[in-house]
Design a protein that fits this description.
By secondary structure, this protein is of the alpha+beta class. It has a single domain, classed as Winged helix-like DNA-binding domain superfamily/Winged helix DNA-binding domain (Arc Repressor Mutant, subunit A, Orthogonal Bundle), CATH 1.10.10.10. It is built from 4 helices and 3 strands; from the N terminus they run αβααββα. Helix 1 packs across helix 3 and helix 2 packs across helix 3. It starts with 7 loop residues before the first helix and ends with a helix.
Length: 98
């Protein structure tokens, strides 16, 4: 998931989808990339579990996947907990008399 979000266009797409479902054309109109490029980015985001799609009439709508975002959030929370614990331990050792 993090690798997929390393691309600024994918970040921008996911940010737009956080506001609600959008069709490829709507996303492409709001971004400086083509419709085919948006489709490719959506495919990657869908493959890693960050985006869902469904048909609505003749349109295919894409939206952020709450379950995928929860997994990403849990990963980032664990990362920061470990990082802050490591920093706490480092500063505690640094302050100990030698």
């Amino acid at each position: 998931m993090l690798a997929a979000l390393g691309d600024p266009s994918r970040q921008a797409i996911l940010e737009r989808l956080a506001d609600g479902p959008h069709a490829v054309g709507e996303l492409a109109a709001a971004l400086p990339i083509s419709r085919p490029a948006v489709s490719q980015h959506l495919k990657v985001l869908k493959e890693v579990g960050l985006v869902l799609d469904h048909s609505e009439g003749t349109r295919r709508l894409y939206q952020a996947d709450p379950a995928g975002l929860a997994v990403l959030r849990a990963h980032l929370d664990q990362f920061w907990q470990r990082s802050l614990a490591g920093f706490r331990d480092y500063t505690a050792r640094k302050d100990e008399p030698r």
